[in-house]
Write a structure and sequence with these properties.
The chain is of the alpha+beta class. It folds into two domains: 31 residues; 122 residues, Alpha-Beta Plaits, CATH 3.30.70.3270. The protein contains four helices and seven strands. The strands form three sheets. Strands 2-5-7 form a three-stranded antiparallel beta sheet. A hairpin with a 2-residue loop joins strand 3 and strand 4. The longest helix has 25 residues. It binds iron/sulfur cluster (2 copies). One iron/sulfur cluster (SF4) binds next to helix 2. One iron/sulfur cluster binds next to helix 2.
């Protein structure tokens, strides 16, 4: 009999302790939001998929100098860049040289012009976000800060193709 009363008292005590913790947590501010009725606001440090940045003088034109570094360094091979030498044929017709895994640079006919002086025009800058591990190597290694992490947090799609982004079109507000 005494044993049963002791067990009940221990049970009641543990219930009181549990309710005390629940009561304390119940009145603390919420850390989650009622999506989709509410959205998260503190996204300053959020790392979304990468995005191209525009030039200060012309925000629709990418800062990218087409060095190919980001595509070369990406461990997942999710960046695809194509460009052509200004004044020459488009990228589909220009002769190319391979500078890294899957990274081709157009070979200019202007052989005697220093590489830095050859004007390039960006044709394609695609990201396959399905493969991206958000390691940040591309952003860290871009010599001109031409890419940044987006704050695109609410992503949804019906297929993998929905996460293959044309970053050039997005910069121009078309993607
Ligand atoms: S964050 Fe990493 S995995 Fe994603 S595109 Fe950049 S280099 Fe590739
Ligand atoms: S590293 Fe920067 S400048 Fe070079 S191709 Fe990538 S985005 Fe363009």
């Amino acid at each position: 009999m005494l044993k049963d009363i002791g067990k009940t008292l221990i049970g009641l005590w543990s219930l009181i302790i549990g309710l005390k913790i629940t009561g304390k947590e119940f009145f603390k501010p919420w850390l989650t939001v009622h999506y989709p009725r509410q959205e998260v606001k503190n996204l300053n440090t959020y790392r979304g998929h990468i995005e191209l940045t525009g030039q200060e003088t012309d925000p629709w034109k990418p800062k990218c100098v087409m060095c190919g570094k980001c595509a070369e360094i990406c461990p997942s091979g999710c960046i695809h860049i194509e460009f052509h030498i200004a004044g020459e044929d488009d990228s589909s017709q220009t002769e190319k040289i391979l500078i890294g895994v899957g990274v081709e640079i157009p070979f200019s006919g202007k052989k005697f012009v220093p590489a830095a002086k050859i004007e390039r025009e960006l044709d394609i800058f695609n990201l396959n976000y399905n493969l991206c591990s958000l390691c940040g190597l591309c952003v860290q290694n871009c010599p001109v800060d031409a890419i940044k992490f987006s704050k695109d947090v609410y992503l949804a799609g019906r297929s993998r193709q929905d996460f293959e982004y044309d970053l050039l079109a997005r910069l121009k507000g078309q993607g």
